[in-house]
Amino acid sequence: MIALFAEAPALPLHTAGPYVAAAYIVFLLIVLIYVWLMARKLINNSRELRELRTRLDERTRLEERTELEQRGSGTEPEARAAIAKETDNDSDSHYQVELDETGAGTGGAGLQ
Amino acid sequence: MSIHVRHLRGLTIATAVTVTAALILVFFYAPLDAEQGFVQKIFYIHVPLAIVSLVGYCLGGAFGLMYLRTGKRVWDMRSYCAIHMSLIFSIGGIVAGSIWAKASWGHWWVWSEPTLVSYLIVILLFCTYQPLRFSIEDPERQARYAAVFAVVCGAFVPINFIVVRLSAEYVHPRVLNLEGGNLPGPMKLTFYLSLLGIALLFATLMKYEMAAKEMRIETRRLRRKLLGDDAVRPLGRTASPS
Q1: What is the pLDDT of residues A4-25, one digit of tens each?
Q2: Is the Cβ pair A108, B103 closer than 8 Å?
């Protein structure tokens, strides 16, 4: 490439070369900085989206179980015991969701 | 899958291939200009950036018009992204042009040259687009006012271009005209490939930005659903559509 440059230019390379290089480097830098910023945003957003979806799924499951529990009060004792056990196991995650709700204002810093 | 995410990988590959091919042609195939020599290579990046950015502004205006006609927020988002990308490309174009001017004319900037000054005016005009959006908190009004701005300024771009072309006194070189320009064959091929590469780059980056915006909107929606309205920042805190 250097040999080609040395043979080709009508203007001496030591005069024209830095200008051409600067123009292309500026272009490349602008594109790279933009892509880097966009990639960072996309990664942060996709991580937050994944977390929110998981929490939403947990909440939906919990609501379904609660509904099932309310309806299941008239069912057989074994079924009621199973529902009660499941609800006990999930009580921690429910508590976690509630905790996060109270601290929600601080979690929004990643948006925008 | 969203329309903005579809074909994104294919478009990215096509962009990378075209831009690489254009760079190879620029440095290994296109002959040196008899008058300007090696410095003329800057034209293969400067002119496509300027053309694509001006078309992007017009596109932003057209998308703004579509928003005003349909009221669908996706057109507002497209208009925003087109103008945002055009601004980035404009800055690249004007810096590359300025470097060329220094190498060729001996000055970074020539205020008496209508092409340069009018391009700067267009850039400064569209620089006010985001502050305008930022100043309006209500999302509906923000989108509507921004669309009106985009349409009016988008219409200004071709008018400005034609007026400058009709101007008798200029020193800025004319790469293209209605007769196809004065470039020889290999230079023309290199130039058109560079133009295609920059246009594809514009489309790809715009699609990425649209995908990022859609993801952010989905995040806000889920956040609101899960944690309530208080967990989501007010829309007026951001200039981009949400």
Answers
A1: 555 554 445 567 788 888 999 9
A2: no
pLDDT surpasses 90 at B146: yes
DSSP B107: -
Helix (H) or strand (E) holding A67: helix A13-71
- Chain A residue numbers with beta carbons less than 8 Å from the beta carbon of B37 are 9-11, 16
The model's confidence at residue B152, banded by pLDDT at 50, 70 and 90, is: very high
Contacts of B205 in chain A (CB under 8 A): 31, 34-35, 38
Could you tell me if residue B195 is inside a domain? yes
Distances (CA, A) of B211 to A8, B2, B161, B200: 44, 8, 32, 16
**pLDDT, tens digit, 9 for 90 and up, residues B217-239:** 888 888 887 777 666 665 555 55
Domain count for chain B: 1
Beta bridge partners of B37: B33
User: Across the interface, which of A9, A24, A52 has its CB nearest the CB of B37?
Assistant: A9
Using alpha carbons, select from B61, B215, B230 the residue that is nearest to residue B148: B61
Specify the residue for token string 């400005």: B160
Name the token pair of A11.
Answer: 């203007």
Residue B143 lies in a domain: yes
Residues of A in contact with B238 (CB under 8 A): 112
The CATH number of the domain holding residue B163 is: 1.20.120
